[in-house]
Amino acid sequence: MSRRENRAHLTVPVGPRDHTSGAENAPLTLVEYGDFQCPHCRNAFPIVKKVQQQLGARLRFVFRNFPLTQIHPEAEHAAEAAEAAGAQGAFWQMHDRLFERQFALDDDSLVEYAQELGLNADRLRGELDAGTYRAKVRDDFMSGVKSGVNGTPTFFINGERYDGSYDLGSLLEAVSVAVS
Amino acid sequence: MKRAPDFRLPSGPGTFLSLADLRGKPAILAFYPADWSPVCGDQLALYNEVLPEFEKHGAQLVGISVDGPWCHAAYSKSRNLRFPLLADFEPKGEVARRYGVYNAASGTTERALFVIDADGVIRWSFVSDPAVNPGADGILEALESLQQPGAVHEPA
């Protein structure tokens, strides 16, 4: 019987296929595995924003999809919509919009958000229908599973899973320790 | 390497599942403390999602806790779980005790994982900090190692 510390590491390093916000050479990388329909991720959303504001150029933030589709039936298409927006250069705008409007994530709403953001909404709808980004979302998901993601949101600070609370104080403290 | 202790437990109101029923394919036993823990951090919701990956290895997953079969049925339905939950309910925690993962102080099983091969031998096991969801990575690594004959996965 092994009793090991629950210490998991990011097995797929941050790379060109990722959506990143912040300087590439930042000393600190915060990776979130998240689900746009998950209320806990919604709660974490403004907190991550504050962490980004406070740390500025010292932080690079990365979001990877981890939709729990069996309990969140709209999470898969929401993730694909974010990817589709990303293909039009607007991943973060869509990421923010999805969390801000978590109460409406049906396909028509996703297309409406694309319109609001000035994107090609027909293209986004077509890509949702075709499942263009399904494999990308699944790749994100499996990279999370293999890294020990155990729910959403799961954060990795410089590649190490963070098991603490994600209130602002705790998260800021954890990233400060990592950067020092 | 140890032979997995046998068991026969309710898998629903009026139905039973035994270890022998799982023979011939790898099995994953996930002991967990209680039904109705918070949704998004929920270990079982994660396994439900990763189920196709377990199935790629031909493995069958069962969850086990001391909750009764009616409680399991309601929980399973509410979470849309696609694998059986076994009720280690009477005598309470008996199967968990056989596996060495009963916590008498809390009256629940530990949060513990076992990967059993097709011949009924425990090939990997892990007891998690009860407060931390252990994820699925250890199970997948263990299942991958089963496919190399003779290889035994030793977790770090």
Short description:
With 180 residues, chain A is an alpha+beta fold. Chain A is 47% helix and 13% strand.
Structure overview:
The complex is a heterodimer of chains A (180) and B (156). The mean pLDDT of chain A is 93. Chain A has a single domain (27-179), classed as Glutaredoxin (3-Layer(aba) Sandwich), CATH 3.40.30.10. Chain A is of the alpha+beta class and 180 residues long. Chain A has a five-stranded mixed sheet. Chain A starts with 18 loop residues before the first strand and ends with a helix. Chain A has seven helices and five strands; from the N terminus they run ββαβαααααββα. In chain A, β2 (28-34), α1 (39-55) and β3 (59-65) form a beta-alpha-beta unit. Chain B has 156 residues and is an alpha+beta fold. Chain B has a single domain, classed as Glutaredoxin, CATH 3.40.30.10. Helices cover 28% and strands 26% of the residues of chain B. Chain B is built from five helices and ten strands; from the N terminus they run βββαβαβαβαββββα. Chain B has helices at residues 19-22, 43-56, 69-79, 94-98, 137-146, and strands at residues 2-3, 8-12, 15-18, 27-31, 60-65, 85-87, 102-103, 108-109, 112-116, 121-127. In chain B, the strands form three sheets. Chain B has a six-stranded mixed sheet with strand order 1-10-9-4-5-6. Chain B has a two-stranded antiparallel sheet with strand order 2-3. Chain B is globular. Chain B starts with a strand and ends in a 10-residue tail after the last helix. At the A-B interface, α1 and α6 of A face α2 and β10 of B.
Topology diagram in text:
The complex is a heterodimer of chains A (180) and B (156).
Chain A: E1 19-21, E2 28-34, H1 39-55, E3 59-65, H2 75-87, H3 91-100, H4 107-116, H5 121-130, H6 134-146, E4 154-157, E5 160-162, H7 168-179
Parallel strand pairs in A: 2-3
Antiparallel strand pairs in A: 1-3, 2-4, 4-5
Chain B: E1 2-3, E2 8-12, E3 15-18, H1 19-22, E4 27-31, H2 43-56, E5 60-65, H3 69-79, E6 85-87, H4 94-98, E7 102-103, E8 108-109, E9 112-116, E10 121-127, H5 137-146
Parallel strand pairs in B: 4-5, 5-6
Antiparallel strand pairs in B: 1-10, 2-3, 4-9, 7-8, 9-10
